[in-house]
Amino acid sequence: MPIILIPIILITIIIFIYLLITKNLIKTFRYKHLPCYDAKHHFINGAQFLSKSRSTSDRTIAIKFAKQAADEADRSIALDPNDAASHVLKALALDAQGYTTSALTALDVALSPLTAKSLSDAERGEALFKRAEIKKVSCCKEERVDSVFEDLVESVKLYGENAEAFWMLGECYEKKGRREEAVRAYEKAVRIDPVCGARDALKRLGSGLVLDIETPPARE
To answer: By three-state DSSP, how is residue 36 classified?
Structure first.
């Protein structure tokens, strides 16, 4: 074999090996990450259905869209079960249909240690608030205050810009007979949103904060 052919053969072998390795890597990457992309696709579809459900005043149509949102959430979860956002979406879609127990179960999964790490602090705070909101109307009276209270305390720690969470927390403090803490929670709610219902609670409790915050003028 002529000596000049040896380098050509070696280069050909190297190129062949390189192309084979590259092809296998691309194939592995594609199939490894495809479920994640498909999961996001189903999540986006579900979020759109939920938005349509909330934007219509027709109860029948709203439930239909909410069911479609829940189905898309299930498809997303099947592909990426550790993404908490899909579990939250499922919970919201189930709650929109009136399935509060199932909605709470979905939120419990979303907030479990395995999945909650995929949420930001603000997202976890909002999920905790939503769980508290559902518990408030679905749990028995004996369980309601303490269970809702625990979620709300953690919620406002993680996300301190939710006026409704502070308002509801104030109500829990009142039920526990802790007036001063209730006032502080209501005051935080009013500072975030001066027209929220916590303003009336402050007036009832005799707080002077409401006098310091001007009520925004009504829209024409």
So the answer is: helix
Q: Is 133 helix (H, G, I), strand (E, B) or coil?
A: helix
* Residue bearing tokens 């990457």: 29
What is the span of the domain harbouring residue 26?
11-119
* Tokens at 215, concatenated: 């009520």
Task: Give the least confident one: 1-10, 135-144, 159-168, 173-182.
Answer: 1-10
Count of Cβ atoms closer than 10 Å to residue 211 Cβ? 9
Integer angstrom CA distances of residue 185 from 25, 134, 172 = 55, 20, 10
Report the predicted TM-score, pTM, of the whole model to 2 decimal places: 0.76
Report whether pLDDT(220) > 50: no
100-110 vs 84-96: helix axis angle to the nearest 10?
A: 170
CATH number of the domain enclosing 185: 1.25.40.10
**Do 110 and 185 lie in a common domain?**
no
Q: What is the chain's alpha carbon radius of gyration, rounded to the nearest angstrom?
A: 26
CB neighbour list of residue 186: distance below 8 Å, 6 or more residues apart: 166, 167, 170, 198, 199, 201, 202, 205, 207
Distance (Å, rounded) from C-alpha 133 to C-alpha 107? 12
